[in-house]
Design a protein that fits this description.
Number of domains: 1
Largest sheet: none
Distance between the termini: 5 Å
Order of helices and strands: HHHHHH
Strand content: under 5%
Radius of gyration: 14 Å
Structural class: mainly alpha
Helix content: 40-55%
Length: 114
C-alpha cells in the first residue's frame, strides 16, 4: 500500500496540511487554518498546519497526532491501515470517513499491507 494513504484511507498527498508542509506554503497554511477553524469551531492557527503524513515518521497536525481516534485505534491494533483490520466493515470509528468517501474505502479495500 502506498505509504501516504492514511490509516482511514484518505490520501495524505492531497491534504492541504501535507501540501503546505512539503511546499513550505505559508499562504496555504493560513487558508487551511481559517477553513479548519470554521469547520471545527475551534481555534486552529497557521503554525498548527504542519504534517508529513499520517503513517510516516515526522510532523503531524495536533489533531492527527493526538486526537484522531482512527489513527489511535490503528496504532493500538498495529495494523497498516483500517483495511487490515477484520472489524473495519462494522467499525463505528472509521465509518464517518468510509461512508462519505468512496475513494478512501477503495484505498482500504483495494490495497493490502506493504
Amino acid at each position: 500500500m502506498k505509504r501516504m494513504i492514511a490509516y482511514c484511507g484518505l490520501d495524505c498527498e492531497k491534504c492541504d496540511a501535507y501540501l503546505a508542509t512539503i511546499n513550505d506554503d505559508q499562504a496555504l497554511r493560513e487558508k487551511t487554518a481559517k477553513l479548519w477553524t470554521e469547520l471545527n469551531n475551534a481555534p486552529i492557527l497557521p503554525e498548527h498546519i504542519n504534517c508529513e503524513g499520517c503513517r510516516v515518521d515526522g510532523l503531524k497536525t495536533v489533531y492527527c497526532d493526538n486526537i484522531c481516534a482512527i489513527r489511535q485505534c490503528a496504532v493500538r491494533k498495529n495494523v497498516t491501515t483500517c483495511g487490515d483490520c477484520p472489524d473495519m466493515e462494522k467499525c463505528q470509528t472509521v465509518k464517518m470517513i468510509i461512508s462519505n468517501n468512496a475513494v478512501a474505502l477503495k484505498n482500504l479495500k483495494g490495497q493490502k499491507s506493504e
